[in-house]
């Protein structure tokens, strides 16, 4: 059976959820071979094996942390040469897309980004994408070279599928371009203790209607009652009420949770672009004409300062 | 020595219009009004600021696109760019990201550059890969997705806000930079700027000017194939209630019925 390369997104050996989802999709096409790079690479093996990786190719070097993108492209290219896979799958993060694109160019292949589903086809893997702010769904495939495809978080279920997961050292020679862009400083993002926005099963977002940074406590309280991540519209972010890392939409994160709760958000096309594929959508807005209501499964026309605290209380009491 | 900045700008269908596909499954660019991609306005803005801070600099805006893409160039010129290059050729119809990066890279090399500045992503394709592809093709450092950028003494520095960390980056020129919408509001063209733009030079190049064969680009040269496009089924109309004092509780009831609580 053909092998499929899966690029592993991990933090010091802790594998991030989208990579496990990729393993589920990879198994539809062939046998997943994982590529883990940088500090803690070998520590990823047990988790990857549990989810179907037959082999785990690892390599650690200071270059991965000290220089931008290119060292990882060099390594993935080395893995491509070593394995000759049927496809290369990469998580659709900003960095993932850049790595994938440069790899595709080097190996003479096409690239598809932001797939939301993947299946085997007669002429290679078929990717489903959601385009034009999720108003259309397309089916595409790479028609030249080894398909390189990046896949969005929450596109498949994480499934246990124990496999050998044999750790093998990947041999990598860095290109002379690898050290072109130096990372001279790094400030890790402070953990909020809440789930990662793109990975969360539930996202609770606030917009301009929240009216101020201090009022975001209401949104956070609702999020915490549901174990959810917190999102914000660009209007709320631009006003300085919430960090840009939490922005949902075209120029922020694209989320696809089981449940999305929008409060005080009108539902502009650029906001929709980042949340329209959520399974269930709920909104609280005092304007009955707000476009967000066109998307909702359940909407409450009302003042969020009344509705949201009442909802939070009710959830807490139901959960006991 | 003059600093030569090339800004890549894309002409895109208006996101607030009714965007759709043409019969050949390429993006329909005829039925929806087009404009300079808003995200490329940030690239033009940063280029102008870098040029203002430099002793001697020249900002060239470059687009690959149909006849109407000139509108995008005009807008960038009226913001303050010095000159424009329009790559236009019937054979370009249907070109994908790999092909677009080839055309842009050849045009950038022909124009001559020290610094390329791109937007973070096009608002129609939203791939966010062209800047990385340009760096790969040109063989220069990529310093991408910056929310802060500066150039001094032949070095570009900037801040990249990633998922896990915020990184400070540094590279020597020549380099390819892309900037996010966090990099700073783009200026509006002034009346004077709009008038001045009418007299600024716009060069037109076709594929033969760039030594690119028709087979390398367009729908036939594409490395990807779109087999189908379907309009997303309209969401079934949801339940909408007016809050009469129990809205929060009613919402909780709905969430419970869907097993979220
Ligand atoms: C290139 C580009 C990229 C963009 N990218 C993004 C993006 O990534 N994400 C994004 O979100 N936007 C993005 N935008 C901006 C987008 O167009 C909208 O401006 C933005 O989404 C509006 O945010 P909002 O809904 O919070 O604010 P508004 O549109 O002002 O809506 C506020 C809503 O709150 C309601 N409200 C007010 N008070 C209350 C109350 N007390 N109780 C209940 N409801 C109340 C109002 O009725 C209104 O509907 C982008 C725009 C451009 C041009
Ligand atoms: N046809 C084009 N002409 C000029 N610049 C482009 C074109 N396509 C993409 N770009 C540039 O590349 C950036 C990223 O585009 P994309 O990878 O398509 O999302 C854009 O913000 C532009 O700066």
From TrEMBL, chain A:
One of its GO terms (biological process) is fatty acid beta-oxidation using acyl-CoA dehydrogenase. FAD binds at residues 208, 233-234, 247-251, 264-271, 285. Residues 4-183 form the Electron transfer flavoprotein alpha/beta-subunit N-terminal domain. Binds 1 FAD per dimer. Keywords: Electron transport, FAD, Flavoprotein, Transport. Transmembrane segments: none annotated. It comes from the Bacteria. GO terms for molecular function: electron transfer activity; flavin adenine dinucleotide binding. Its cofactor is FAD. Heterodimer of an alpha and a beta subunit. PANTHER family: ELECTRON TRANSFER FLAVOPROTEIN ALPHA (PTHR43153), ELECTRON TRANSFER FLAVOPROTEIN SUBUNIT ALPHA, MITOCHONDRIAL (PTHR43153:SF1). The electron transfer flavoprotein serves as a specific electron acceptor for other dehydrogenases. It transfers the electrons to the main respiratory chain via ETF-ubiquinone oxidoreductase (ETF dehydrogenase). Belongs to the ETF alpha-subunit/FixB family. This is Electron transfer flavoprotein subunit alpha. It comes from Streptomyces spinoverrucosus.
């Amino acid at each position: 059976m053909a092998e499929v390369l899966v690029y592993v997104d991990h933090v010091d050996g802790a594998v991030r959820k989208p990579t496990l989802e990729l393993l589920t999709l990879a198994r539809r096409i062939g046998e997943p071979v994982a590529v883990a790079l940088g500090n803690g690479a070998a520590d990823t093996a047990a988790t990857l094996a549990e989810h179907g990786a037959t082999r785990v190719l690892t390599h650690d070097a200071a270059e991965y942390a000290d220089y931008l993108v290119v060292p990882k492209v060099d390594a993935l290219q080395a893995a491509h040469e070593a394995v000759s896979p049927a496809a290369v799958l990469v998580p659709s993060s900003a960095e993932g897309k850049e790595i994938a694109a440069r790899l595709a160019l080097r190996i003479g292949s096409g690239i598809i980004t932001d797939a939301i589903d993947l299946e085997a086809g007669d002429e290679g893997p078929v990717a489903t994408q959601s385009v034009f702010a999720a108003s259309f769904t397309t089916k595409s495939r790479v028609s030249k070279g080894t398909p390189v495809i990046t896949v969005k978080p929450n596109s498949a279920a994480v499934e246990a599928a124990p496999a050998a997961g044999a750790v093998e050292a990947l041999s990598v020679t860095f290109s002379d371009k690898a050290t072109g862009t130096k990372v001279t400083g790094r400030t890790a993002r402070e953990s909020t203790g809440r789930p990662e926005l793109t990975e969360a099963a539930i996202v609770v977002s606030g917009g301009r209607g929240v009216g101020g940074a201090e009022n975001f406590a209401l949104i956070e309280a609702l999020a915490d009652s549901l174990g959810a991540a917190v999102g914000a519209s660009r209007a709320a972010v631009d006003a300085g009420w919430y960090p840009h890392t939490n922005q949902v939409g075209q120029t922020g994160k694209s989320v696809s949770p089981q449940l999305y709760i929008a409060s005080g958000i009108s539902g502009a096309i650029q906001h929709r672009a980042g949340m329209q594929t959520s399974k269930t959508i709920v909104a609280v807005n005092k304007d009955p004409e707000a476009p967000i209501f066109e998307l909702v499964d359940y909407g409450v026309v009302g003042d969020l300062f009344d509705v949201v605290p009442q909802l939070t209380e009710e959830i807490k009491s139901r959960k006991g | 020595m003059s600093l030569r900045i090339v800004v890549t700008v894309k002409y895109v269908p208006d996101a607030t219009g009714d965007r759709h596909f043409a019969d050949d499954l390429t993006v329909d660019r005829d039925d929806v009004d087009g404009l300079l991609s808003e995200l490329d306005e940030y690239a033009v803005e940063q280029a102008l600021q870098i040029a203002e801070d430099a002793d001697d600099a020249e900002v060239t805006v470059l687009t690959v696109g149909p006849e109407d893409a000139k509108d995008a160039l005009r807008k960038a010129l009226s913001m303050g760019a010095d000159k424009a290059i329009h790559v236009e050729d019937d054979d370009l119809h249907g070109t994908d990201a790999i092909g677009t990066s080839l055309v842009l890279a050849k045009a950038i090399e022909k124009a001559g550059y020290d610094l390329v500045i791109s937007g973070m992503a096009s608002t129609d394709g939203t791939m966010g890969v062209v800047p990385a592809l340009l760096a790969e093709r040109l063989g220069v450092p990529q310093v991408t997705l910056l929310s802060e950028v500066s150039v001094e003494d032949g070095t570009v520095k900037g801040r990249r806000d990633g998922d896990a960390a915020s990184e400070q980056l540094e590279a020597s020129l020549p380099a390819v930079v892309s900037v996010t919408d966090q990099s700073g509001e783009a200026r509006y063209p002034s009346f004077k700027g709009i008038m001045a733009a009418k007299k600024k030079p716009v060069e037109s190049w076709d594929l033969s000017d760039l030594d690119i064969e028709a087979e390398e680009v367009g729908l036939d040269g594409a490395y990807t194939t779109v087999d189908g496009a379907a309009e997303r089924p309209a969401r079934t109309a949801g339940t909408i209630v007016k809050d009469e004092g129990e809205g929060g509780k009613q919402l909780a009831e709905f969430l419970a019925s869907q097993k979220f609580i």
